From TrEMBL:
The active site is at 10 (o-(5'-phospho-dna)-serine intermediate). SMART domains: Resolvase. Residues 2-149 form the Resolvase/invertase-type recombinase catalytic domain. It holds the Pfam family HTH_7. It comes from Jiella pelagia. Gene3D superfamilies: Homeodomain-like, Resolvase, N-terminal catalytic domain. Keywords: DNA integration, DNA recombination, DNA-binding. SUPFAM superfamilies: Homeodomain-like, Resolvase-like. Belongs to the site-specific recombinase resolvase family. This is Recombinase family protein.
Amino acid sequence: MAIIFYARVSTSEQTLSHQQDQAEAAGFTFDEVVADHGVSGVTVKMRDRPEGRRLFDMLRPGDTLVVRWVDRLGRNYQDVTDTIREFMRRGVTIRTIINGMVFDGQPKDPMQEAVRDALIAFMAATAQAQAEATKEAQRAGIAAAKSKAESGAEAAYRGRKPSFTREQVGSVRGLLGKGMGVAEIARTVGLSRQTIYRIKEDPAGADAALAAWSA
């Protein structure tokens, strides 16, 4: 029975080493690490990713699949729920590092199964909703920056160049939504705690700053 760690690295800030270090700090050890790089969890299904396809081929009954959170499996509700249920049907246990969730095919009582399936659906829906909220916030920030530029205010002064990237802001929002603490988020995404607090307290301002600098 193998323990396999899967990571989806969609941006330069979401490095494999960060995800793996977080898993090992939580006490996990692995027989193999499988990672897809530069792949969107919104538009590319698990089976369509190079390493995702390999994961379907290699997992066997009794194996354990470890992921940082369900959003590493994807950010599309249908794809994530289909993937988890397929793995469970094969006798694979899925464990998340964040929140310490465990999904398997063990429950036989229909009420327990219903609770498990509802939780899977909720987490998958949350992953997709966070991706959509991040995109909407980015659009709002860009629109605000353009409006200022057209009025002449932004042309006169764009403010200090932000110390964070758009991808880091998206990661911060996602981790805040999962209930992770500011200090742990700072270590995960490589930003100071003060910066995390600024993004948390003024998300629109963070998007506007990025848009003003075309970051």
